[in-house]
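Record format v2
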Amino acid sequence: MSVIRLDGVTKYFGKKAALDGVSAEFETGRIYGLLGRNGAGKSTLINSVCNRVRINKGEISLDGERLQENDKALGHIYAMSEGVNLPGDMRISSAFKVTGDFYPNFDNEYAGELAKRFGLDVKKRLGRLSTGYRTIAKIIIALSSGAEFIFLDEPVLGLDANHRELFYRLLVERFIDSGCCMVVSTHLIDECANLFEHVIIIDKGKVICSESAETLLNEGCAITGSAAAVDRFCKDMDILSQSSMGGIKSVYVRGRPESVPNGLEISKPDMQQIFVSITGGQEGEGDTK
Amino acid sequence: MRFRALLKNSLRYIILPVGIVTAAVMTVLRCFYLHRDRLFMGETGEILDIYNTATFFDSLFVLVPLAAVIGFVGFRRICKTAFQNNISRRCAYRAVLITGSLFALLLAAIKLISISMPVFMKDTGVYVSMSLICESYSPFDAVADNFDFQAFMPGIMDNVAYSSAGFAFAQYYAYISLLIFIRFFEAYLLGASMSALMYNRERVVKLTVIGAYAAVLLSVCIYSDKWHRLIENPELIAPVIGIVVFGAAALIFIRISNAAGMEGD
């Protein structure tokens, strides 16, 4: 088992700390969900691990070996970025070839097979593809890279529902076959929730939650009913978040009461509700970067 | 292995396109001019003026823009590839420096081949002055253009008549050696600039690098008297175009690198 360890990683952009003393671990044989609001620092975290940005403080290591400026260790990591880093005039088949030059375990045959399943013409140039197909090309390269650690930053951007389903299936298939570490950073939390074994939530450059998905989902419950009844019942509980629509109120509380009065419903919260409650409600704060 | 992969890609995307396209365009142009001049001027010294004009035109309209465009498109591809595949900065610097050297040597070779063409026409009775045909497409060549070969190699130069082909060849090979040395220097300067632009986020670093590069070019121009010759001979504007093209390409490059998220602002 290999482990990437981040220890007190800090990255400043100007005076703003995009990452502020982040400590986390990524192990092979697990699928991680890397969640956070816009501008929380998810992409910076991925870019820091991949040596794409210089960190100001802290240490990143792979099995105890320093990762920064370590080509051998960096060869075990592949990161699919939100943007396209490969040249736009490059054909997809060339992109497969170029990636194969850098990742010796790149599976060209598998990449071709995935392209067929997604209906992607490998003779096309990257710059000529629609947003969805560009994402598909990036997904195919990432899944075929043969790297031990695969970071996927917004992997379903622009994909239709069918392609998203296919991607989730392929991701799990590849994970089972290779036993690698997959880190998925996404805003479509509910769709991906079933994939995650472990969830890391990052907010304002800090890791505010790092838990197994199961623990997180069992940590609280949602109580729904008329606003007055919910308020009365939950007044002494640890309320994590609440939302109202018309006269109906839904409150997400820590723990799980044994029973609820008539008229109220108790349910298991979904990952998105948990995420919203942990990251502090629905109001946006804007990007201060 | 990853370093070799990056070098392989550098050769594929910079050296080969530059070599093939530039050499092809130059050959076609030279053949066209030589053929036309032979037809209309005969085998006389009059060819000189026409040939010099041709040199000026292909420097101005072919070599400078072609080298700049292909070079920077190629470097951009390499930077993006290096960035996508998590190449360490040290490895990327080395690849850019080596590619830059090969790139510069290739351009020198292409220019030298084009210089050789009239020299090898000596059997036709045409003597072409080196100082005239060697007008530069890079300001650094001005150092070679203004080098005092007579003082540097008196033993050789004293023994050959000034107007003989022997002198032309002695000067020619001395010029080649100096040009290659200068090309290496230029390549490393270019490589260092590109590397600094590639992986440094701070705008001040980028501007300093571009400013330093421009300052060195300008100093060379002034030191080598190119500046005065430029004022007297407006057709020697090619090096200036080179600086402008470099500056523009560098600015575009910064935009691209920022857009690609290379520690962008």
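Chain B touches chain A through 27 residues (CB under 8 Å).
Residues 2-259 of chain B form one domain.
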